[in-house]
Amino acid sequence: MPSSPIGVLTRHSEHAAASDPWTDLPTLAEVLNTLPDPRSRRGRRYRLGPLLALSLLAVLGGATSIAAINRSISGYDPSVLSRAGLPGTARLATSTLRRLLARLDGDAFDTAIGTYLAALTADGLPAADPPTSRVPLIGLAVDGKALRGSRTGNGTVTHLLAAMRHDTQTVLAQRQIAAKSNEIPAFTPLLSGLDLSGAVVTADALHTQHEHARQILAAGGHYLFIVKGNQPTLHRRLKTLPWRAALLNDRTDEHGHGRREIRRMKICTVRPGLPFPHAAQAIQVKRRRTNRRTGKTTIVTIYAITSLPPGRATHARLAALIRGHWSIEALHHIRDVTYREDASRVRTGAAPRVMASLRNLAIGLARMIGWTNIAAATDHYRSHPANGLQLLGLTT
């Protein structure tokens, strides 16, 4: 497997960026090759790193099952497989690949690709905020997703909790929820290995927990949490703040998807005694949504709290952080619609989680290459597999 960096990637389509000097996919196989290999040394024919890297290219080309991944790998010319570090003459069996993915260490796999993506985004992307003397703020969304198709006979479903950058849609950390548990205990191990300096962790009301706030601040980050009825005292206090007297800090008016949506945001500096650690500002967002076909209008009021002190972020940036949190829902939607994740019947061992991680990695890399439409990206790499091989420094 070549180890030299790719200096410039040629334009693969009009939707892709012309060059990505910071993208170094050849090293990805080397990173994956350091994972604990669950196979016995005796009879081991396929190197782990190149095999997983080629599996990624299959997913990038739209493969939605282990059998489809195997067909993609088997379809390469033997000379290409040899240059990738795999035996060019031996045919890989789908059952062999399925057993390998089922036995992989899911935590080690997610840590490896999360660290890899974090290095790529840190080296190659512009700051989310204009340059200042302060550390720029990066949104980091935390949310969970159940892999519904992984349900086993006893009703167990693989449930994953992930942390994703708002701006790049790259998943930097992921953990599996223990059976008969929920997302809350997984929050601490999820973020424990991440550098939160300059990060604003956004989460829905489930994770508006005192210990979560303390953990984030101790790690050098900030939080922006939605507040609902699961924190009744805090929610009641936020509702009674003097919102009528507060100035309108941000307003957006957007049209799309057959509706008009107006968002109005107000901010109150928190009074002493608000029952939540490190809370510095309270936020109210009123969302007025009108269905243009039916004319029906709904108004929803959302409350949030943040540890960001006044002046640390502009009002527009705070509004963007609140809206940016839902980009992780967009990621989940892509996995369900483009990759048919919920319809997948992969159920054995770590395989459901590994497949989800490969999808996360494929989507994140496609975004960094420049694709804005992931369905178009999968169509392109399915039709032009040589372009996928170029990402690994290989040619047909």
Explain what the structure shows.
Residues 1-23 and 125-133 have low confidence and may be disordered. The chain has helices at residues 26-33, 48-60, 66-74, 78-84, 94-103, 106-124, 184-192, 210-218, 232-239, 315-324, 327-337, 351-369, 374-383, 385-391; strands at residues 138-147, 158-165, 171-176, 199-203, 222-227, 248-256, 259-269, 281-291, 297-306. A hairpin with a 2-residue loop joins β6 (248-256) and β7 (259-269). The two termini are 14 Å apart. The radius of gyration is 23 Å and the shape is elongated. α1 (26-33) packs across α2. The protein is an alpha+beta fold and 396 residues long. The chain has a nine-stranded mixed sheet, with helices on both faces. It has 14 helices and nine strands.
Question: Could you write a compact summary of the structure shown?
Answer:
This protein has 396 residues and is an alpha+beta fold. The protein has helices at 26-33, 48-60, 66-74, 78-84, 94-103, 106-124, 184-192, 210-218, 232-239, 315-324, 327-337, 351-369, 374-383, 385-391, and strands at residues 138-147, 158-165, 171-176, 199-203, 222-227, 248-256, 259-269, 281-291, 297-306. The chain has 14 helices and nine strands.
- Which bin fits the share of residues in helices? 25-40%
The main sheet comes to: 9 strands, mixed
Tell me the series of helices and strands, N- to C-terminal.
Answer: HHHHHHEEEHEHEHEEEEHHHHH
User: Count of helices?
Assistant: 14
Strand order of the biggest β-sheet: 3-2-1-4-5-9-8-7-6
